[in-house]
Amino acid sequence: MDSIDIKELNERIQRESSFVDMINLEMNKVIVGQKHLVESLLIGMLSDGHILLEGVPGLAKTLAISTLSSIIDADFTRLQFTPDLLPADILGTMIYSQKKEEFIVKKGPIFANLVLADEINRAPAKVQSALLESMQERQVTIGDNTYKLDEPFLVMATQNPLEQEGTYPLPEAQVDRFMLKVVIDYPKKEEERHIIRQNLAQTKAKASAILKPEDIIKARNIVREVYMDEKIEKYIIDIVFASRYPSEYGLEKYANMISYGGSPRASISLAQAAKAYAFIKRRGYVIPEDVRAVCADVLRHRIGLTYEAEANNITSEQIINGILDTVEVP
């Protein structure tokens, strides 16, 4: 690709990505701080990937996704996962209509653009797999009929890291379906003061609808056009391979710490997320910093730790940082 093309592409993407600043502006009216959470939601939405959020209650997780849905004028549903939830409660079911004397389909809350699966690890495996199937296949089967889900379709699942009582951890294969696993923390002191004032104010700030779901679909097609050099592709592959075969990359100290590394889904997600991140930063090409910025969220849940790692208090974050420090940057 010659430089003229890159220049033209860069200018086009700068024009096309102007709505990102507008979304951030609207989000900031309602959400204080949590910049990383808002950024991750945008990355997920622009690269057609789902998000697993981990954080203690009260960190504006629900507020963030419901605000985003009102900004893009999309359908939003919230599912509270409980141990007695059934797959039909999410997907929908066949109900008998006495008037028509036949079974009719009653669609479930999964039929929306943005779905918040709150405390996903509270529901048993059967329910989790029903949700994850619709995330992967983008369709739902009720009775004999299969229904396509609306585009854009984004699931943001949350899990509470504190309580282990009465929870069903997500199996590794299912966790892999999430493009990003985002860990969010408490706000800073100044932000917390702002949160208190905002909540005690007479009028509550509201975000305005500035986009339509079609605009997001259009933006996704443009994100795919963001230029990624072969050197960046090699960098992504090296990072993922270093998580599988650490010894080959001079990371012998992690050889006994990793039970399994990132799957090919990790490489795809890393490339997609890096393109979306470049788009959010209003650039038409991917630079190594884009890959590094999204690396922890993409790989955090895809690296399995051995008992030895847990005994030594080694976390997947430490391993990712070790990989990023070692793998040669193009």
Report the CATH C-level class of the largest domain: Alpha Beta
Q: How do the SSEs run, as a string of H and E?
A: HHHEHEHEEEHEEEHEHHHEHHEHH
Strand percentage: 5-15%
Shape: globular
Low-confidence stretches: none
**Within the largest sheet, what's the order of strands?**
2-5-8-1-9
Count up the domains.
2
- The total count of strands amounts to 11
Largest pleated sheet: 5 strands, parallel
Radius of gyration: 21 Å
**Tally of individual helices:** 14
Structural class by SSE content: alpha/beta
What is the residue-averaged pLDDT? Answer: 86
Instruction: Determine the CATH topology of the largest domain.
Output: Rossmann fold
Helix content: 40-55%
What does this structure look like?
The chain is an alpha/beta fold. The protein folds into two domains: 19-213, P-loop containing nucleotide triphosphate hydrolases (Rossmann fold); 226-326, Magnesium chelatase subunit I, C-Terminal domain (Helicase, Ruva Protein, domain 3, Orthogonal Bundle), CATH 1.10.8. It has 14 helices and eleven strands. It has helices at residues 3-16, 18-30, 35-46, 61-71, 87-91, 125-137, 172-175, 189-200, 213-225, 230-244, 264-280, 288-299, 307-311, 316-326; strands at residues 51-54, 76-80, 92-97, 102-107, 114-118, 139-142, 145-148, 154-159, 180-183, 258-260, 304-305. The strands form four sheets. Strands 2-5-8-1-9 form a five-stranded parallel β-sheet. It has a two-stranded antiparallel ribbon with strand order 3-4. The chain has a two-stranded antiparallel sheet with strand order 6-7. Helix 3 crosses helix 11, helix 10 (230-244) crosses helix 11 (264-280) and helix 12 packs antiparallel against helix 14. It is globular and about 70 Å long. The two termini are 18 Å apart. The mean pLDDT is 86.
